[in-house]
Amino acid sequence: xxxxxxxxxxxxxxxxxxxxxxxxxxxxxxxxxxxxxxxxxxxxxxxxxxxxxxxxxxxxxxxxxxxxxxxxxxxxxxxxxxxxxxxxxxxxxxxxxxxxxxxxxxxxxxxxxxxxxxxxxxxxxxxxxxxxxxxxxxxxxxxxxxxxxxxxxxxxxxxxxxxxxxxxxxxxxxxxxxxxxxxxxxx
Length: 187
Description:
Layout: E1 49-59, E2 65-75, E3 90-95, E4 99-111, E5 114-127, E6 130-141, E7 152-164, H1 179-184
Antiparallel strand pairs: 1-2, 1-7, 3-4, 4-5, 5-6, 6-7
């Protein structure tokens, strides 16, 4: 997973962790499972590398830690900061060599007139081989839900250190070969 993604808890691994610290969660994640991937800004070359990040999850406005985890992740230049993982999110934001900010959101029908809007908003800064990220995930339910679901807000804060460069990020060396020549190498 990437440090941008390290802010996204393991229980939602299908959602790309947004910057070396961005993580996604929320009650409504399951509502968005059949949608297309998100788009938005891409990772600049200055962020490329292997990142070791520690992410802390809290309920917005509450200092108590809900979850904390550390992870290694690889960021590759040119890849989207956020991959929707089928969540149908629309994303916008900016990415520079030292700063990321993004917002992704989607509204889905839960049932009848009940809709849920999930919004992911994040800010990340990089100084040399260090980064800090804050991601807030809110889920708001419409009046048509009749109060069945409470609105939610989660905050993920992350700090990370780049531990290695990735000079051939995303590249795989391939030589043209026939299937029989490949099989012959293993006999």
